[in-house]
Write a structure and sequence with these properties.
The chain has 6 helices and 14 strands. It is an alpha+beta fold.
Length: 313
């Protein structure tokens, strides 16, 4: 991506981007017979799976079977049609989990004989979530979310999990920059209040590139924000959204929830379109900086928190 000078964005970095068919990003629903068929498929393919994957698929489908049986026992009304299982979160032995993660790492990004693997090292705004998964055609997916060594979630899904779709979070750029540079440009409320209009947003700059800060999180000395690059609207060839139509696209599943590419914004009065994401972080923050959500002309100050107060950079 070329350096930005004012609104001279260059013309070689606008990504190919389009909405997906309706429902793409929504969690699929299944009828009871469909679930039974998926469970049977797991039994059928288990012996052909890599040895490191068998314990997790076996435990996962057993958890899903138990959830399904419990829903039937409780006569959940949605069972009459297509429905979603309750979460099938389960535990396995540490050595089994390590073996599965090593398998995903060794085969990440591959797909062969109906089996695909994917690893995303930094998933979401926290910057530290590690996600690894394996999907077997017709038999569902096992996905591991690792927040820390003692905070790990393992899920079985009776379908191809959305992890395996192409996401704006894949290979998300992580850029270190002190919180004081970007906290004052926080603009989440400007988007939320814009409705069907176009939000006028402040920006912050790193190495000559301007970004829009749409929100983030803080924990201890760690701060991060969802940062978005933008281009002049005249350079954008994909779909465009207002805040309201973007939410509608999330609800229809044509756009991944959280993806703001295509959103119209005004920067210093010029109509622009958000075109890419980055994670800006500061893991050495020592002060408490309040994000200031003001017009650009007034966003040149910050307010320090008392030590007990929660930071929300």
């Amino acid at each position: 991506m070329s350096d930005q000078f004012g609104f001279d964005f260059g013309g070689d970095h606008v990504p190919a981007y389009a909405e997906q068919p309706e429902g793409t990003w929504l969690t699929p629903s299944h009828t009871a017979p469909e679930l039974v068929a998926v469970f049977a498929k797991v039994d059928e393919v288990l012996a052909r799976l890599p040895e490191a994957a068998r314990p997790l698929f076996l435990a996962g489908v057993q958890s899903a079977r138990e959830q399904h049986a419990l829903m039937i026992e409780r006569e959940c009304p949605q069972l009459a049609g297509a429905f979603q299982l309750w979460r099938s979160n389960f535990d396995v032995a540490d050595d089994e989990l390590r073996a599965f993660l090593a398998l995903c790492e060794s085969r990440k990004g591959t797909k062969a004989a109906g089996i695909e693997y994917k690893v995303r090292e930094f998933d979401g705004i926290s910057g530290g979530i590690y996600v690894a998964g394996m999907c077997v055609e017709g038999a569902g997916s096992v996905v591991v979310h690792k927040w820390s060594d003692d905070n790990i979630g393992i899920d079985y899904k009776p379908h191809r999990d959305s992890l395996f779709l192409t996401s704006y979070r894949d290979n998300l750029r992580r850029i270190f920059e002190p919180c004081t540079t970007w906290a004052k440009a926080h603009s989440a409320s400007k988007f939320a209040e814009s409705g069907d209009g176009v939000a006028s947003v402040p920006t912050f700059a790193i190495n000559g590139r301007e970004y829009v800060n749409t929100g983030g999180m803080s924990h201890g000395s760690y701060r991060c924000c969802n940062a978005w690059t933008f281009v002049a609207a005249s350079e954008w060839t994909g779909p465009t959204f207002t805040y309201r139509t973007l939410i509608q696209a999330f609800d229809k599943g044509t756009v991944e929830r959280g993806d703001k590419r295509g959103t119209l914004v005004r920067v210093r009065g010029q109509l622009c379109v958000i075109d890419g994401a980055a994670l800006i972080y500061d893991d050495k923050a020592t002060d408490r900086v309040m994000p200031v959500d003001e017009d650009e002309d007034h966003a040149d100050h910050a307010i320090e928190f008392d030590e007990e107060e929660e930071a929300q950079c």
